Fold this sequence. Notes:
The chain is globular. Helix 1 packs across helix 4 (82-92). The protein is of the alpha+beta class. The protein has helices at 12-21, 32-47, 72-79, 82-92, 250-253, 256-259, 264-270, 292-298, and strands spanning 3-6, 23-27, 61-65, 125-135, 165-171, 183-184, 203-204, 212-216, 221-222, 232-241.
Amino acid sequence: xxxxxxxxxxxxxxxxxxxxxxxxxxxxxxxxxxxxxxxxxxxxxxxxxxxxxxxxxxxxxxxxxxxxxxxxxxxxxxxxxxxxxxxxxxxxxxxxxxxxxxxxxxxxxxxxxxxxxxxxxxxxxxxxxxxxxxxxxxxxxxxxxxxxxxxxxxxxxxxxxxxxxxxxxxxxxxxxxxxxxxxxxxxxxxxxxxxxxxxxxxxxxxxxxxxxxxxxxxxxxxxxxxxxxxxxxxxxxxxxxxxxxxxxxxxxxxxxxxxxxxxxxxxxxxxxxxxxxxxxxxxxxxxxxxxxxxxxxxx
Length: 299
């Protein structure tokens, strides 16, 4: 089963459960009015599309990417959610925590061995991708897959190794079995490379609007068939460790002019940040964040 947690509860066990079984649900994290506002921000673009997406997506989806340039609401509610940052800190184990309530992981030498439980696993993490995905009636089930496959062949599955990504599915509408709630295989994060999923192992993430499913990049998952006439809408965004390239180019999706209007922490999470060893810009690594206002006003 997919274990469920209250939004105001202690999320320490939630982090442990993600490590155990790869997926959890935080129930009713966002109020209905927030979900209404975010969905309204992309509805026009969704409605202008014909369902498709190819066989991988079951030929039934509509989608909109580059969410964090579509108004500050997307960043303020999603990127700055204290609960989701606590989960990301606990799984990706950065040297410097992003959540106010997450204990800081003491940094080690760059070449020290990584402890997948204690960390640090990375200097920081940043947005990997962002998309509102709407699953329309009909089509087929999406192939069960792992998000970390996008980094093949440069990495292979190590069940005992550190995690690379953590994704969130925010339910903009209710997720039910009938409308194709996302399918997961809990525990598949511990499977070795080559072990294949079976449909009998699938659990669907049934959840109310405003709830959030969180899962590891090592967990098998995929969208399901929507058997109803009403589209099912979900907002997906993910974080990846800073030494991996972002799946969606955030500097094009959220260019400096758009990022400059966002809170500093949101800019950091989008990727306007450096580490002393990777992606650095000399003179701008103090605090490991680019101050866009000063940088671009001087250029």
